[in-house]
Design goal:
The protein is an alpha+beta fold. It has nine helices and 19 strands. Strand 8 and strand 9 form a beta hairpin. The longest helix has 24 residues.
Length: 468
């Protein structure tokens, strides 16, 4: 059975269903003398009960799939296998995979005239001692974005429970997240420029001015996008440090629309205002005011060619990894030689060997990968990278920015979990890209450079425009 973090509500809900399913199988084992096939119809009814009573039913969830998920169109029974992937979809329920493994030798002795083709069709034939039946629970999702060429109403993603690496409710990751961040950055500047207690410039009036400014400047105006917006909540009894505690879990709705502009929702003057997105619903044409803080997930529908992933770091990453394997294969215990060799590799990359050095780039990073900001200006040609530069770094929560824009000024490397008395493994070494960022928020934090692990970059392209 999966072990989920005790604060992971979606994971706990799935673990609860899996435990209940195990109890059902145990009862079926007793009733049918280990031949679960006879309990198939009863299991189907139990699965419907599991689905209807699960917190996940009808919820939009994000699932990381290892490799054995599948897309199946039940209108044609056409199946396509999924590789390692991240799926966002509406939870539709559970299904069961049943695999019967026959002991051919025993059956041939008992029934010498039966061939394998007939045997595979005899699902109800009694089991012999060495035969095996494996029953596995899985989940069924309907993807948020329809899959082209399939019947949308009858096409699902099915994932075996053993293949689910993680399940959660979507977090902040959507096209407008940078707009929200930018508005709060501007508001912070205004509040710093004016006395916080000076009521001459209230935060709500500041937001109204900022919203008007973004209406004129944002490259997203007029763009079509798919958003998952919070519209309510469900209560779930979670296990927190061994204590049962009710938690409100957001319920999301799917909205496809065109961004018309921005506005400010004026609240209590002592609290300030909150930015809104003005969205024209693509289905109804209705103009909707969406709180940016209520958007949990989303994507642009009309993606431009200039926004596609150019995989800029593929060459760099592959080349560096070749160097890592080369030096470690020589002697993984010679820490000094490994450090000096890789330092020389980074020096060559920073002095013209890398094809995208000194280019303006835009990157997206995985949300669960940390990056850091530094007070050091790594674009200074007189700077010599030392062993203790990390002392200048500050951690930044990745959710604060959906993408990073700036100039790639160099590379460095880090050795993770370094220990003098152990050999260095190639997976302990991480290549880090150094980007000189123009973020107002980072300037407020006294950050000059941003250090991003190359293996945390999921999308990269050239250019210096608003990318979401």
């Amino acid at each position: 059975m999966h072990e989920y973090n005790e604060f992971d509500v979606a994971g706990q809900a799935l673990a609860k269903a899996e435990w209940e399913f195990s109890s059902i199988l145990h009862a079926a084992e007793i009733d049918t003398v280990n031949d679960y096939r006879w309990a198939h119809d009863a299991l189907r009814e139990k699965l419907l009960n599991l689905r209807d009573n699960s917190l996940l039913m009808g919820q939009i969830v994000e699932v990381d799939v290892a490799e054995h998920g599948r897309v199946i169109d039940y209108s044609t029974n056409k199946t396509e296998q999924l590789g390692e992937s991240r799926i966002i979809g509406t939870f539709e329920g559970f299904y069961v995979d049943k695999t019967v493994t026959r002991d051919q030798a025993t059956i041939s002795a008992a029934l010498p005239y039966i061939d394998e083709d007939d045997l595979s069709k005899m699902d109800r034939m009694p089991l012999f001692a060495q035969d095996m039946v494996d029953i596995q629970l899985g989940i069924r999702l309907k993807t948020i974005i329809p899959i082209p060429g399939t019947d949308e109403s009858r096409t699902f993603v099915e994932i075996p429970m053993s293949d689910i690496e993680d399940i959660c409710f979507p977090e902040q990751d959507h096209p407008l997240i940078e707009e929200e961040t930018l508005m709060f950055e501007y508001a912070s500047i205004i509040m710093q420029a004016n006395d916080v207690y000076d009521l001459g410039t209230s935060l709500d009036s500041a937001f109204e001015a900022i919203a008007a400014k973004r209406y004129k400047e944002s490259s997203l105006i007029g763009r079509k996008m798919l958003l998952l917006v919070e519209e309510g909540s469900k209560t779930f009894e979670a296990n927190l440090d061994g204590t049962k505690m009710p938690i409100d879990v957001p319920v999301l709705k799917r909205l496809a629309g065109k961004l018309i502009g921005f506005a400010a929702h004026v609240k209590d003057p002592q609290i300030g205002a909150e930015p809104l997105a003005l969205i024209s619903d693509l289905d109804t044409g209705e103009l909707l005011n969406i709180h940016l803080s209520s958007i949990a997930e989303g994507a642009l529908i009309d993606e431009l060619d200039t926004e596609r992933d150019l995989r800029l770091f593929n060459y760099t990453s592959n080349s560096f990894n070749d160097h890592v394997r080369h030096i470690i294969d020589k002697d993984p215990w010679d820490h000094q030689a490994i450090y000096e060799y890789l330092q020389s590799v980074c020096w060559k990359m920073n002095n013209g060997a890398d094809p995208i050095l000194d280019r303006e780039i835009v990157i997206q990073t995985y949300r669960d990968s940390p990056y850091e900001i530094s007070t050091i200006d790594y674009s200074d040609p007189s700077l010599i990278l030392g062993e203790f530069d990390f002392e200048e770094l500050m951690d930044v929560a990745l959710g604060e920015s959906f993408s990073l824009e700036g100039r790639l000024v160099g590379y460095r490397f880090a050795i993770l979990e370094y220990q003098d008395d152990k050999p260095i493994d190639e997976f302990d070494i991480r290549l880090i890209a150094i980007i000189k960022h123009d973020s107002t928020l980072l300037h407020l934090l006294k950050g000059v450079s941003v250090l991003v692990p190359v293996d945390a970059i999921k999308n990269a392209r050239l250019g210096n425009v608003n990318y979401n």
